[in-house]
Each structure stands twice: as C-alpha cells, then as structure tokens.
Amino acid sequence: MSGCIDSEVTQECTVLVVEDEDPLREPVVKMLRMAGFVVLEASNGTAAINLLRANEGTIDVILLDVTIPGASSHQVLAEAAAQDRKNIKVILTSAYSQEMVTPSFSAPQICGFIRKPFRLQDLVKTLRSALPATSEKAPSSCTTEAL
Hints:
By secondary structure, this protein is α/β, with parallel strands linked by helices. Helices cover 31% and strands 18% of the residues. The protein has one domain: Rossmann fold (3-Layer(aba) Sandwich), CATH 3.40.50. α2 (45-54) runs parallel beside α3.
C-alpha cells in the first residue's frame, strides 16, 4: 500500500470508489482526482472485487456504497479482508442514516461513514482519517465503534 497521509502526498493514495449510480460516481471520481488522489472506480460489487484482485497491494481505501448491484457490499468487504489486503480501509456511504446502515456491517476495515450527498472537503477529511498516521504499513484499529 502506498501509505498516503496528508495533503502533500494525496497523489500516493489510491481510492476505490464503488458506486452504481453514474451521476454520483462520476463527479466524486473527478473531484477526488482533482484533489490529488489516484482513483479506481467500480459501478457494481463484482467489478469492485475484480479491481481489488487486479490491483493487489495498491488500494489504500474503499469508498463503498452499501447498496450496489452484482456482488453485495458485504462480499466486497469480505474480499477486502482477504489475507493480503488487511490494511485496506473502508468508508461506507449511503443516502440512509449511519444509524440505519452501520448495525448490519461489522468488519475491522470499516473506518467511517459518510452520508450522501456530501461535500468534497468532508469526503477528503473522512478518507484521510481512515489512513495511517505514518507511512508504516502496520494495521490500524478501525472499527464501526469509532464511527
């Protein structure tokens, strides 16, 4: 993993955006790229799993819509939790409230939640908070309790 930390090194951060609605995904991808992130995008869970497998060791954080077609968001989480990808962090996103969404998700990779619609600066802040405070690749302790 690249270990992105702050605004000076966001270009080293790779974010996988998993969102099935093009009118939502496309502007988010564009804004994150403009903010300096490397961005991969998937319009469904199956594509997200394929990108995880094809980009082994390069994805730092996943912005994961909780309701997606294809493989479910739970399946994407399971793939992210695979042995070689334990350091990937996940930010859940939904138009539903955090209280409605997070009880059905329990994984150590989940480091945050952002409700749609959101502002770019809020998304960038949430993404950065999910990343390690140092460039070390040691796992951090993210849980849904921290949400």
